[in-house]
Amino acid sequence: MDFFQEQDRARRSSNWLVLLFLLAVVGIIAGVYLIIVLLFGYANSGQATQPTQWWNPELLLWTTGGVGLLIGSGSLFKVMALSRGGGTSVAESLGGTLVSRETNDRLERRLLNVVDEMAIASGVPVPQVYILADEPNINAFAAGTTPNDAVVAVTRGCLEQLTRDELQGVVAHEFSHIFNGDMRLNLRLIGLLHGILLLALLGRMILRGSGRSRSKNSGGGMALGLGLVVVGYLGVFFGRLIKAAVSRQREYLADASAVQFTRQTDGIGGALKKIGGYGAQVAHPNAEEASHLFFGQGLSYAFGSLFATHPPIEERIAKLDPAFAALQASAQTGGPAAEGAALGFAAGAPTAVSAGALLGSVGNPNAQHADYAKRVIGQLSEPVYADLNRREGVASVVYGLLVASAEDPAAMLRSVLDDTAVVERAAQHARWFRQANRAVWLPVVELALPALQELEDAAQYRVLKDVDALVRADGRLSIFEFALTAVIEHSLKERWPKHAARSVDVLEIRQAITVMLSLLVHAGHSDPAQAQAAFEAATNVAPLDGPWQLQGRGEIAIKALESALERLGRLNFRFKRRLIEACLAAVTADGKVTINEAELLRAIGARLDAPVPPLFPGALADTEGESTAAKLENAG
Predict the structure, then answer these.
(1) How far is Cα 431 from Cα 90, in angstroms, rounded to an integer?
(2) If DSSP codes are grouped into helix, strand and coil, which group holds residue 593?
(3) Which one, out of 147, 202, 391, 612, has a CA that is 20 to 30 A from the CA of 530?
(4) DSSP character string of 66-111
(5) Which residues are catalytic?
(6) What are the two backbone dihedrals, phi and then psi, of residue 333, each rounded to the nearest 5 degrees?
(7) Is the peptide bond before 547 cis (omega within 30 degrees of 0)?
(8) Closest by CA position to 158, among listed 177, 142, 178
C-alpha cells in the first residue's frame, strides 16, 4: 500500500462523494418543487380555469434556495461540529467513555498496550482510546480528521471475547483506516447524510403540527409534510446506498493492511470468525449514522446486503489467506517487507538503509515494526512507565527527557520548576534515560501524548511553557529537543481553536523546503562536502525546481524549521510524498542514517501528517523477563 496514494485516493473519493451528494440534492429539490406545484394546483382546483402550471421559475428559485439552505446548512453544521471535536465527538456520540491511562483494569490495560504498540510501530501519535461499555457484541472503529486527533474505540464485547492476538488484529485494522485516509471521508459521509435527513425531519414536524390543527388548511399542510417525508427518506435511501458502496471497498484494503502489520491472519481472522458467533450489532441510537466506521457490520437491514456497509464476513475471511500468502511471497522475493526486516541499529552509530525501503514504510508498517514497539515498551523502567500513564506524573517524564543530557539535570530542573516533587521525579527519570538506549527517547515522547491530552487546557499550557523554558535553559536547541517540542506541540495545539491559515506562495514553499533540507543534512553530516552532496541528492527529487542553495550551519536555527513545516503541512499529499522522498534522499545519501537524522525525520513526518515508522526496527536488544506493561496486563 502506498500511503500518499491512498490519502489522495481517499480525498478524490471525498470529491466524488460531494458530487453524488449534489446530484442527490438536485433530485430532492426537483421532488419538493413537484410536490409544491401539485399542492398549488389542488388548492386552486375549485376556482381555476387554467391547467396546472408546471413551470414556475420564481417558485423553483424559492424551492431551490429553501431546500438547498436547509440541507447545506445542516450538512455543514454537522461536518464542522465533527471536525472541531475530531474522533472524540464521534466516540462520545456513540456512548463511548475514555479509557484513563491510570486504569488498573486488566482488559483495559491490555487494550492500551496494544494501541501503544501499534502507534509506536506506525509512527502515528498515540490515539486516545474509548470503550463502548454498553455494547456486548464485537466491534470497533477509528475516527478523526487527521492522525493527530484520531481515537480508537472498541466495544465491551471486543475486550471480553477476543484474545490479545485477535484484539491486535482488530486494532491494526482500525490503524489501517487512519493510514488509508478513510477517517476524514467517513466524517463527511456522516455530515452529508445528516443534511438530507433534516428534510425528512422537517416533513415529520409539519405532519405533527397539521395533525393537531383543526384549520381548513390542515389538509394541505399534511400533504406537504407527507411529501417532504417521502422525498427526504428517498434521499436518505440513496445516501445510504452511496455510504455502503464507499465503505465496502475500503474494508478489504484495511483487512489486508492489518495482516501486513501483524504478519499473521489468526488475529484478525479469528476476530471475524467470532463475530459470526457473537455478532457485531451496535445498539446505540446513533449507530446508524456511524455504521460505516465499524470493524464489523454494526446494523442489520431489511434490504439485506443492499445497505450493508461491510462485505460479508465469509468473503473477508476468505480473502485474508491469499492476501497473507502474497505478502509472504513478497518477503521471500526481496520486496519492501524484506528490506525493512534487514534494518538494525546500535545506539549512537549509523546504520545502513535504503531510501526506497523507508519511503515504502511510511503509513505501511510491518511485523518488525510491531515487534520493535513491543520491545521499546518492555525496556521502560517501572517509574517511567507508571508516570507515562498518570496525568500528574506524565510531565515529569517529559522534563526528564529534556535534561537527560545536561551535566547537572537536577540543577537545570530547579532553575525552571517550582514543584520539588516534580523536580525529584524528573531527575530520577533523567538518570534512567541517560543510561537507556537513545532509540527509546522519541517513542517515550509519543507514549506521553495521551496522558498529556487528558490534562485541562491550563495544565497543557503550563507543560508547554515549562518545556520551552527547559529547552532555553542551556542556550541551545538540540535535534532531540526540537523533535520533542514539535511532536508535543503539534499534538496538543491541534486540539485548540485554530486561526485561519494564510495562503502560501511558491517562494515561501521553496524557502521552507530549503530550511528543512539544510537542517536535515547538517544533522547527519559534519563534513561540508558530504552535506552539499546530500543536499543536492535531496533537491534532485524535491517537488519544486531550483535554484537551491544549501544554508550554512550558522545561517539557520532549528526553530526556523517549525514555521517551515507549518507552511508545508498545508499542502496536498502528492506534494508531501515528494517532500518525504527528498528528506529520505538527504539522510540516505551516504548510505546510512544516524539517530539525529532519524529523530528529525520522524518529527518532520509528524508535522506533515505522514507517519514515519521506526527506522531501526532491530534497534533494541531482546529484554529478559516480563515487562512492566505485561505485568499489569496479566495482573488480576
Answers:
(1) 41
(2) strand
(3) 612
(4) HHHHHHHHHHHHHHHHHHHHHHHHHHHHTT-EE--TT---HHHHHH
(5) 174
(6) -95, 10
(7) yes
(8) 142
- Enter the C-alpha cell of residue 636: 488480576
| Cα–Cα dist 485/482, whole Å | 5
Residue type, 278: Y
| pTM reported for the whole predicted model | 0.73
Q: What is the pLDDT of residues 218-253, one digit of tens each?
A: 566 677 777 777 777 777 777 777 777 767 767 777
Angle between helices 420-435 and 409-416 (to 10 degrees): 150
Residue written as grid cell 435527513 = 197
Grid cell of 247 as nine digits = 465503505
d(CA 46, CA 59): 21
pLDDT in tens, 508-550: 888 888 988 998 888 888 888 999 999 999 999 888 887 899 9
47 falls in which pLDDT band (50, 70, 90)? low
Beta strands in 565-636 (DSSP E): 592-593
Bridge partners of residue 351, in order along the sequence = 593
SS (H, E, C) 340-404: HHCCCCCCCCCEECCHHHHHHHCCCCCHHHHHHHHHHHHCCCHHHHHHHCCCCCHHHHHHHHHHC
Instruction: Evaluate whether 112 touches 101 at the Cβ level (below 8 Å).
Output: yes
**How many beta carbons lie within 10 A of that of residue 381, not counting itself?**
16
Residue type, 371: D
Contact 139, 157 (CB under 8 A): yes
Is the distance from CB of 224 to CB of 202 less than 8 angstroms? no
Cβ atoms of 33 and 59 closer than 8 Å: yes
Cβ atoms of 435 and 446 within 8 Å: the answer is: no
Q: Which residue has the cell 511532536?
A: 487
User: Which residue do the cell numbers 518545556 mark?
Assistant: 467
Q: Which residues contact 623 (CB under 8 A, 6 or more apart)?
A: 375, 378, 379
The SS3 assignment for 22 reads helix
Find residue 294's DSSP bridge partners.
141
**What letters, b where the CB count within 10 A reaches 16 and e where it falls short, cover 611-635?**
bbbbbbbbbbeeeeeebbbbebbee
DSSP percent split of the chain into helix, strand, coil, nearest 5: 70, 5, 30
Specify the amino acid at residue 226. Answer: L
User: Under 8 Å CB-to-CB from 339, ≥6 apart: which residues?
Assistant: 354, 356, 357, 360
- What's the whole-number mean pLDDT along residues 256-267? 69
Instruction: Quote the DSSP letter at residue 591.
Output: S
Q: Supply 497's cell numbers.
A: 481553536
**What's the residue count for the chain?**
636
| Cα 597–chain centre separation | 24
C-alpha cell at 395: 510531565
3-state secondary structure of 154: strand
Burial 26-46 (b: 16+ CB within 10 A, else e): eebbebbbebbbebbeeeeee
Question: What single letter denotes the amino acid at residue 329?
Answer: A
533 CB contacts (<8 Å, ≥6 apart)?
Answer: 589, 590
**Range list of β-strands (E), 435-501:** none
In 3-state terms, what secondary structure has residue 536? helix
